[in-house]
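User: Some background: our group keeps a shared notebook of sequences we're curious about, and every so often someone picks one and asks for a predicted structure to add to the entry. Today it's my turn. The entry only has the sequence so far, pasted here. Could you supply the structure so I can complete it?
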Amino acid sequence: MLTIFSPHISKRLAYIVATLFSDTAIITDNAAEYLISEGPCINYSDQLLETGLQIIPVEILQETGVREQSVKMDQWRGLPVFFSGKGQIPFDIFGASFYLLSRYEEYLGHTKDEYGRYGHQNSLAYRNGFLDIPLVDYWMQELEKELQKINPSYRLPDRSFRIQPSYDIDIAYRFSHQSPFKNIKGYFLDLLMMRFDDLMERATVYSRRQKDSYDIYEWLDALHQHYQLKPFYFFLLAEKQKYPDRNVDPYTSGMHLLIKEHARKYQIGIHPSVQSNHDKSILERELKILTYHSGLPIHHSRQHYLKFELPLTYRQLIEAGIQQDHSMGYGAVNGFRASTCVPFYWYDIMEDKKTSLEILPFCYMDSAAIFHERLNTEMAMERMLYFFETVKKVNGVFSYVMHNHFLTEQKEWIMWRSMYETFLKTL
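Assistant: Of course. Here's the predicted structure to add to the notebook entry:
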């Protein structure tokens, strides 16, 4: 066991120690007890003690609420750090990790993007060039090396690298299972705009001579079976078709059968509509629809358009019975929003408590690569492989997000479909 001395054991300190070390560390406020402890130890105080690595704490873990923090960037072992001090570990690794994992900066004044989300340009990681690395996990690897100088047999808690595919089903079908009114309207719009390829596809899909282009589910099933993957599927079930919540009507037989079949084979979750973000009753309705279609209780979620606001959205998810959220990433850039690739429990800063909501962060999403980073398929492949290798080095979870309507055999998407299949072959 790792022993940590702190004269003040706050809720925040207890949370971050449990998050970083699982159940392999204990905290004591008794200096005498600390000095006779066996094994590696950390002196998390400004007191001079005879044993252990010293880390000088800043105030963040002893505070409540939120205030502007003095964040000045420095370097340690080639890694960016902040909350610097004069200890043997020359920055407050616990305070800095709490700042990043709790998303402390998202509670402060910031600029929102065009969709009303926390803009990634505000983040410390983006402004200081470390969004592409799971910095907290890198810090912990270096801390492990320092502790091994005291006790060569010391190891951080074991964890295993795994790949976690996930799919957002924003538009389950392009033409199938749509309302007659929407299909007729679409037909005349295609005719007016002279979109003859779309007219042809509509006709062949309506006559059942061709599968709907967005219906790629059997192809995905074959990939998952071949590469032994266990994906998540998140279904958008907005009752009102209002931009950007424009999936197929959730009450159609097509949606019912699609969800029922996926619930039988995979983990599924709700993709709460943007409309639900500030209306708990809408979220509850969408969860009931998914429960009805699947016949299962729903415990997983990812916000549509990644639209969430702390602490409001996460509190609503907890009240609705969600146990794990997959929204921790940016919509307009790929990278590590919380500077980790390891699942962790959300800490509600305003209520000053660890919650029951587990956060599974992702680091790559196809729509960010396509529309915001504007990568071609070769560059996107390189990005995916980079994130894969980066997460593998720290034994994290390589979680990524794809959309069925960007993996079709349509001419504008066929290269992206091919890229994804090639990526899986290289693993």
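Suggested note for the entry: The chain has a mean pLDDT of 94. The chain has three domains: 2-150, 162-174+212-426, 177-209.
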